[in-house]
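Pilot study result, target chain (646 residues):
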Amino acid sequence: MSKQIRPYGSWDSPVTTDSIVSETVHLGGPIVDGSDLYWLEGRPSEGGRNVLVRRVRTSSEDVTPEGFNVRNRVHEYGGAAALLHDGAVYFSNDSDQRLYSHVPGHAPKPITPDASLRFADGNVDPARKRGIWVMEDHRDSGREAVNSIVAVPLDGGEPSELPIVLTEGNDFYAAPRLSPDGSQLAWLAWNHPNMPWDGCELWLAGIAGDGSLEDAQLVAGGISEAIFQPSWSPDGVLYFVSDRTGWWNIHRLGPDGSEIVLAMDAEFGLPYWSFGMSTYAFESKDRLFCTYSAGQGWQLASIDLPDGRLRAVETEFTEFGTLHVWDGVITTVAGSNSRPDAIVRIDAETGKTLETIAVSTPVQLDADLISSPQAIEFPTSGNKTAHAYYYAPANPDFGAPEGELPPLIVMSHGGPTGSTSAGFDMRTQFWTSRGFAVVDVNYGGSTGYGREYRERLNDKWGIVDVDDCCNAALYLVERGLADENRLAIRGGSAGGYTTLAALAFRDVFKAGVSLFGIGDLEAMAKDTHKFESRYLDGLIGAYPEQRDVYLERSPIHHTDGLSCPIAFFQGLEDKIVPPNQAQMMVEVLRKKGLPVAHVEFEGEQHGFRRAENIKTAIDGELYFYSKIFGFEPAGDVQPIEIENLP
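Predicted structure:
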């Protein structure tokens, strides 16, 4: 069958916004309670509601009833919002942030008193019939929220009773973990201006007869050592991930202090953006299973204990979520560059997929329609190299006119401390199947390449990331893989800042799309939530002492450099990047007479969760590119208003 010849960007594609939003869920977990398996499904088709789901024989059933959304807003990003014990579910409900006790078949019962108290990362203390949680107290609107680790009775007691504070005094807490015998509690703590990946502390305390903590000791970490995922082995040894060697490697606490289990130039940890993140789990006291990254995807492996011998487990997957290991079977959320995320059971010895339990999307694409990521390393500023994944246009039914080069979308990930992955993403395939090239950049500052690479962004946000995104585009132009006159950059949150900075301070791109991005760094420093209120100290400098640097790097103060169209998509309930950030930038572009689109979403926070809004944002972005780059998009594309369009 001969290919139809159409301009890049105008190809028909089966990857539609309807297929992305109506048939796709976000999978979280797994969560295991005895022999029962649970997981979370984030459903755009239900307004972004998170539902706890349980495996029942060969099918599944919803556990949390309609009207409840399993989500907390501790640190605003939340995570680890559900806890299971003996068939009962304890979860945070998004609308009121109260903890609920729920036995399936009965109505959920609130067990915490006040909507201004938020809870995350629970751990069951069965001997004392209580849950141990991270709590964030917002009762005093005149001061910064107060974080602590608290105990909440599992039966709830009287809903008016306040939780019992076990430890407080630090700015932040995470990962309270009870030892197998219930005699000790480990946890993470850190203080402003650090973020947890800059440096945090691992603490250990005994539990007294009355349930309080005693003899608390700092056992690892500090202001320049980042600790991740403290976990107890079945025989009561405390393990954790530390980057003291320059790489996030697994350590344990021995009689003479902490010791490394296995030294590798690889990352066994992640930036603690949300609660409950993990990369390893114990099968027994003699072996754990883990995932690690050496810069190109993730590998599943086992580590024999205590000698630290690593054995690769070869699977069909390159991306993994939380692991649970039992009786030779690994249960996890996994995906690859050609397979969407799914909850699967994997044979721990052979790596064979034994069962697929739930899938993030039932949509299956033909292999020749999928654009596979190519890991590229390209030269950038300072005689360094940076990393990215390149996706070529791919559609077996279409070709482009002879001599035409594809438009390129440069994707700048959020964080900025974070990373992009090579995992299958329907949204990336949405673009490539229509004839766009895409490059997803892991600019300096990204995780997955060691602490030194991560620290490239220290004091240089708005410089290193911008240079790397620009140089990724120029690298592909030089190789004849992209049209230099149709280069676009887009990103959300911190990636939106990189997008706006690239458009204000460089002359590489012809269009940009900012999703809840930052235009005014000073406004961000003065008006954001507690978790990130001092984040910019490390990325830009101390505020207000270095206010001049904030002004110098803020696109809003350098709009004379803006010379191309920009589209903005923004949630009106965003507490992380308030909507006035987009509004200020739009007003400037409007006055300059540049084409500008501004789409605001009622009820959306930081990131879009509702199906209709996700659809509008993706369709709107395609429509925007079509008008700016001069092609006719295929299919029924929802238009958005573009002001000042010639």
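One observation from the pilot: The first helix runs from residue 17 to 22. A full batch analysis is planned for the follow-on phase.
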